Amino acid sequence: MYKKGLYTIISNEPLTPAVYRMVLEGDTQYITRSGQFINIELEGKFLRRPISVADYDATTVTIIYKVVGRGTEQMRGMVAGQKLDILTGLGNGFNTANEARRPLLVGGGVGVPPMYNLCKRLIAEGKQPQVIMGFNTSSEVFYFEEFKALGVDVHCSTADGTMGTKGFVTDVIREKSLEFDYLYTCGPLPMLKALYDNTSTDGEFSFEERMGCGFGACMGCTCKTKYGNKRICKDGPVLKREEIIW
Amino acid sequence: MVKHYDTSVELCGVKLDNPIIPASGTFGFGREFAEYYDINCLGAISIKGTTRDARFGNPTPRIAECTSGLINSVGLQNPGIDKVISEELPHLREIFHKPIVANISGFSLEEYEECCAKIDKQEQVAIIEVNVSCPNVHNGGMSFGTQPESAAEVTRRVKAVTTKPVFIKLSPNVTDIVSIARACEDAGADGICLINTLLGMRIDTMRRRPVIANKMGGFSGDAIFPVAVRMVYQVANSCHIPVMGCGGISSASDVIEMMMAGATAVQVGAANLKNPYASKEIIEALPAEMERLGIERLSDIIGIVK
User: Fold this and answer.
1) What backbone phi and psi angles, to 5 degrees, belong to A6?
2) Across residues A207-218, what is the average pLDDT?
3) Which residue of A has its CA nearest to B56?
4) Whether the Cβ atoms of residue B161 and residue B183 lie closer than 8 Å to each other
5) What is the C-alpha to C-alpha distance for residues B126 and A193, in angstroms, rounded to an integer?
6) Is B23 at the interface with chain A, CB within 8 A?
7) Considering CB atoms only, which of B32, B64, B72 is closest to A215?
8) How far apart are CA B250 and CA B198, in angstroms?
9) Mutate to test the interface with B, among A87, A213, A235 (most CBs of B within 10 A)
10) Which of A38, A90, A115, B76 is the most exposed place for a label (fewest CB within 10 A)?
11) Given an 8 Å threshold on Cβ–Cβ distance, is A220 in contact with B72?
């Protein structure tokens, strides 16, 4: 179930020069799972901007977005008190109803945000999640301390070695000999593929595709899976490991 | 005293409570929108373009944003005619009790015939909308809808195997829309639906390549509204069959403008993708707009502009 509503910006602040965190107040009852997204209408833009939910509670939803184009540039300039027309509760999100006790959460770049609420949820369910976040360089790293504050093992990789393990998230798994019984991940396609190739546990991968409507109507973001055609916005963005076709 | 504003219209004997029909390809088979609102407020629904075989469509990315619109190159993704009949229509029957416009596409005359004959037998279907703006493997890669002769041939073949009103959905990417519409009328079409999307293209200047994997796609949205009004006006003034006006409609005011140009009913397309409530909000805004313009019966204004 999903819904359209008006949301009020409570805060909108930079975490890094290019990555911003926006907290919005409004009806969050349609957000039911970590890894879902919201779709934001911007003045003068025909299509909404789909952004993953980093965290939410009874009255607020937090998103973390990277300024990459004119839409997100517009969002960067928004201030507290401004109202936004948003569709919430979109996408299937991550499923935590499984036997895993020690899941591994891997986020790459702006794939990190959905891992935050997921991590909190897994902890609340009595599981022991561990987290890897991958970035290009230390100045791009965000939410390292926030994850640490949740009391979980947090590892970081940077491509240039300026923070944590030098290299990629898969290097962290090797270097730290991490043991895990389930994988949740969101990030750039090459990272997802590398994780798929270098791990063997069951897992869920969150994908990205250029969307039209964001709620399953236009068929713009369809991908092929072993279980047939799926719309990334409606049947995804999270796909099970077993169904992925690369 | 509250005045009654009559929004009903009649399309080839099919009575609609109001002229608002979500356009094919922007409304799926109704499921996604039924999660947002009771879709029975709609005049009718034009369901996702259906072909004989199931289709994945074109490679992604197949969406590109534009100023006041978007380009799509979905490429007729659909489950195929048999699954539409066995799965989608029965589901739609549970959530929607108004007329259904079945949009049929094909890659050969035989495919149009086969699909239209099958869909014609479905009791739920009130009108058949034949989409002749997809690539044609028979006529050397041309669209059926871009030549009067081939558009007329599809019309004749479909009419021969159907009993329900047949509307031909035409492409705007032509030199002379009137000659094509008239050829369809002469071949027996019961109505014309226009316009389909305009061929467009965007380039990612950073990556120096087209935004869309298939390079080009169909441009729709508010930006194409004036083109649609012009073509509806031209066709309505040269044919004697009803026209469904489509292209860039996003408000009650647009609906009335399109009807004044000659449309008996209108289709709302891209607006549904931006705002899932668009069609419902347009219907709700109609009485106030009619009051503002001194219109008591919507059907009175069809083609009133000469």
Assistant:
1) -100, 135
2) 95
3) A229
4) no
5) 48
6) no
7) B32
8) 17
9) A213
10) B76
11) yes
